[in-house]
Amino acid sequence: MLWIELAGVLTVGTLSVVRPEWFSDATVWSDFGIGYGFVPVALPVAGLLWLRAQDPAHSESAVVTAFRVVAFAEAVSWFGLLIGMFFKYVVDAGERGVEVFGPIHGTVFLAYLVVTLITWRAQRWSLPVLALALIASIPPFCTVLFEEWARRTGRLGHRPETPVRRGEFTSTP
What we know:
mainly alpha
């Protein structure tokens, strides 16, 4: 059900940014987000994710999946922004790449911060782990590195069983 709600919010939010004339009577969107790219779309999505995280009936896997997807999307948006900056400053080919990927990266960056706070609460991370997750959003591609580290150390999803040390055997009678 969450994905249907998210699809609806994304569709209406995107259309309100792309085709504002279709929503001329919608006072909710009037003057909100003008010049901010897809931020008006990201805010309701983050709100829906937060509301779902409050519901104990939903498993932690949805929060973990959202974190993993947004961490990857943040790295991809960084890549697009860096390519846009390369063409703007090195090749001197204009600002179009930055104009496109700047708002996208800004929106995904904010979504990563919100989803990180939701994941921190759902996974009961310590404050140093939260700080590391938030700091990982600043250097390019570090959100993917943090996500991989958190997954390997059992901080995303269910903790793995205690690993068997070398030289030890397990057997069932």
